[in-house]
Amino acid sequence: KARQRLREFDVGDRFSRLPLPRAAVLLPLMVRGGRLHLLLTVRSLQLRRSPGEVCFPGGKREDTDRDDIDTALREAKEEVGLQPEKVEVISRLMPGIDKMNNLVTPVVGFIEETFQVTPNPDEVSKVFVVPLEYFVKPLNYKTFSYKTSSGYSTRIHCFIYHDQEHRKSFKIWGLTAHFAVFLALVIFGERPTFEVDYDLDNLFSSSENYFTNLYASIHERKKSNL
């Protein structure tokens, strides 16, 4: 059922012509105890950009990457030792735009629960998993409004997840939380316990409108800068 829903929301490469630098992240899903879980990483404290923050495996596109799927799989291998052939890629969901104005495409794939993580300490300090359902029914959640550099107002989701395995709480927010929430909305098709920026009865078209408005606000700013 999850695979079918994800394929219905696959955007393919329809946004590949937009004139923004490209990046991609892998949203690795696994079944654990009969429930879907999402694998996340904590960025190394040695990194210059966003050290110690929770994110998905991923990064900027390189010239040798054929597409966003290639980028996401290459980065996942480099960061957590996930071999590309061990990922069942299902779809590419609606992209987002990060703080550096990179067009970030979320690539969704299934991995085995038995996957043994080997984090690259230069890039990743921890790896943990969260039940996907947490991103529609969280125990610890807050939201705040954010205005982009281009003046576009949007909603920032912030989750605090207490991981029993690591006996540690993780803060999941920003674009990472945005992708996790959208993934959970797509798969479960139910109303979350908090407000979102979408019409849940028309999730695909409203998510496309959300992205189009965000992109237009950034593009207008770039044109005015020129």
Automatic annotation (TrEMBL):
Reaction(s) the record says it catalyses: a 5'-end CoA-ribonucleoside in mRNA + H2O = a 5'-end phospho-adenosine-phospho-ribonucleoside in mRNA + (R)-4'-phosphopantetheine + 2 H(+); succinyl-CoA + H2O = succinyl-4'-phosphopantetheine + adenosine 3',5'-bisphosphate + 2 H(+); dodecanoyl-CoA + H2O = S-dodecanoyl-4'-phosphopantetheine + adenosine 3',5'-bisphosphate + 2 H(+); decanoyl-CoA + H2O = decanoyl-4'-phosphopantetheine + adenosine 3',5'-bisphosphate + 2 H(+)
Q: Is Transport set as a keyword in this record?
A: no
What keywords is this UniProt entry annotated with?
A: Hydrolase, Magnesium, Manganese, Membrane, Metal-binding, Peroxisome, RNA-binding, Transmembrane, Transmembrane helix
What species is this protein from? Emberiza fucata
Q: What is its main location?
A: other
GO MF assignments: coenzyme A diphosphatase activity; magnesium ion binding; manganese ion binding; RNA binding
As for family, the record states:
Belongs to the Nudix hydrolase family. PCD1 subfamily.
Query: GO biological process annotations for this chain's record?
Result: coenzyme A catabolic process; nucleoside diphosphate metabolic process
Residues annotated as signal peptide: none
Q: Is this entry keyworded Transmembrane?
A: yes
Subunit structure comment from the entry: Monomer.
Q: Which Gene Ontology cellular component terms are annotated?
A: peroxisomal matrix
Segments traversing the membrane: 172-189
| Swiss-Prot/TrEMBL cofactor(s) | Mg(2+); Mn(2+)
Q: Where in the cell is it found?
A: Peroxisome
| Designated name of the protein | Peroxisomal coenzyme A diphosphatase NUDT7
What function is annotated for this protein? Fatty acyl-coenzyme A (CoA) diphosphatase that hydrolyzes fatty acyl-CoA to yield acyl-4'-phosphopantetheine and adenosine 3',5'-bisphosphate. Cleaves CoA, CoA esters and oxidized CoA with similar efficiencies. Preferentially hydrolyzes medium-chain acyl-CoAs and bile acid-CoAs. Has no activity toward NDP-sugars, CDP-alcohols, (deoxy)nucleoside 5'-triphosphates, nucleoside 5'-di or monophosphates, diadenosine polyphosphates, NAD, NADH, NADP, NADPH or thymidine-5'-monophospho-p-nitrophenyl ester.
- Pfam families assigned to the protein according to its UniProt record, in alphabetical order: NUDIX
Among PROSITE patterns, the record links this protein to:
NUDIX, NUDIX_COA
